[in-house]
Each structure stands twice: as C-alpha cells, then as structure tokens.
Here is the input.
Amino acid sequence: MTQTMTDARLIELIEAWGADATAYPESERDAAKALLMKAPERFAAELKAARDMDALLGGVPDVMPSPALTAALIGSAPRARAQRRSWFAAMPRWSAVGALASLAIGLAIGLGTTQTAPTNTTEEAVDTLIYAALGFDTTYTQEAAQ
Amino acid sequence: MAFSSDLDQITRAAAGERQAVSALVNRYSPGVLALATRMLGDRGEAEDVTQETFIRAWKALPDWEPRAKFSTWLHRVALNLCYDRLRKRREATMAEPPEQVDMALRPDDALDQAERVKAVEAAIAALPERQAAALTLCALQDHSQAEAADIMEISVEALESLLARARRALRAVLMERSEA
Here is the structure.
C-alpha cells in the first residue's frame, strides 16, 4: 500500500527515529524512503543532524552485569523445595525391614515352641527346627520318622 | 521463539530449577541493568534496581500468566522502580538544587571518546525521565516500537513524541553549545 508522505511528516520521522529509515514505523517506511530518494537535498540538514546524534548514541557502550551481580540474581531465586518421600516411595525400604523382623520373630517363636523329642540325626533335628520355626506341627514328622 | 521458550523457562524457574533461573537471568539482566543505568546515571543504584526487579520476578513466577511478554513485564517493573527512585531523589534535592554540570561537547579534539561517552550518558540521565526511557529503549536497546511503547504503557505516537523531544534536548545540550 502506498502512503502519502509529506515533507513535514518525513522531518518528524527523522527527528524522532533518526537518519536510518529502517527505524521508522513500518506503515510509513516505504513512503518515507521514496520521498528521501526523490528529493534528498530537501532533508539534508535534518539528516545531517540526525546522523550526528545517531553516531553519539551509537558510541554509548552496552552495560553488562558483573559476575557478582549475576550470581546474586541467580542466588535470589527461590530454590526447589526438597521433595518429600511419599508413603509409597518409602514403603519398599520399610517392607524389607519388616520382612526381616517377621522372620526373626517367627524363628524366635518357633524355637520357643519346638518339641524336645529326640531326633535321630543332626539333619532331622535341623529340619524339625526349621519347620517348627515356620509354624508347622512337627509332631507328625517325628512320628513318621519313627 | 523467545516467547514460547520463556514460558518453558518460567515454568521450570518457578519450580526452582537452577538452569532455567540462570537462563532467565543471563537473557534479561543486561537489558534491565542497562535501562536502570541510563535512567539513574548511577551503576550502584542500577544494580539495586536490577536485583529488586528480579526479586519481584521470582515472586511473580509461580502465578505467572502470559498476558504480556516476560521481557516487557520485567522492563516495566524496572522502569517503575527507576521512576520511584528518581521521584525520591527529586524530593531529597528539592531544598538543595544539584550542581549544574556542563555536558556540552567541545569542538576541539581534546575530548576523547571516553569523555564523549560520559557526556552522552550524563545528558541522557539528565533528560526528563520519560524521554530518557524512550530514548534508552528505542535508540540504545533493541526493543521494537510496539514493545517500547508497551513497556512504557503509552501509544507508539506518544513514544515518537517523547523520542523527538529527547533527541532535540540532547542536541541542545551536547552539540549546539559546542557549535556556538
């Protein structure tokens, strides 16, 4: 779309945005460029003043944060909260402990209730002990052995 | 696109992920610090403003809604903090007017580049605050016209007017006296 560009409006653009037409508002850029190409001498003084100012502003260096400031900014951010272990997450560890405890209690009860009948061999005695620890009735086993 | 990657980083930074926090700081702290430095003309105060801006950002992140670009929001916070400081500074110096500093560039070659830069920086910081903001955002930083206007919460037309006045004022201070 071709826009009408007047001398007065072009001077306003130069005074606000500088000598580089690419900085002008997009809707007026093409028309401004066309007028500048058509009659550059009419805007020479404004362009010269704008170029001088652009050069001064272009000489202003960037400002970069120091490493200390960067570290302080990063350090000021909230840290991730330590994740609480859920009951399910905690369960496997405790279940292992529980299983061992159950086994120990079972062995203790079993040993406490083992019949004192004599056994023929050490092997049978051990078997009887284990069965008893696991809660089986060892009377039948002993009778069968006799 | 910066916008979508911002959203991703904001979400991760809000959860406390250090890599995302670092990315946001590295991307935006130079612009915020530069804006504050040009507005206040004082590096120490500018660093304070930058820290305050990011502290506010961290507080806002958990409830962040992408109605505006994060960059725009962050610069707007910084700009408002600068306005607050300039207002307090004005109130504090009401009874005691500041010493007038001659910022005119001299036509001879005695003025080296460092002095020239200092003169320009001082002249920008001495501009009326909205003119200084417009000039910094548009002429010294890479903000688009729409984004600069959005940061300042004004129209592009108003931004253009501020820019024209800022450049005229700078010219008067820096160049015309040297031409006389």
Summary: Chain B has a mean pLDDT of 87. The domain at 99-180 of chain B is CATH 1.10.10.10 (Arc Repressor Mutant, subunit A). The interface with chain A takes residues 13, 15-18, 21-22, 25-26, 29-30, 33-34, 37-38, 43, 46-47, 50-51, 54-55, 58, 113, 116-117, 120-121, 124, 135, 138-140, 145, 156, 160-161, 163-164, 167-168, 170-171, 174-175 of chain B (CB under 8 Å).
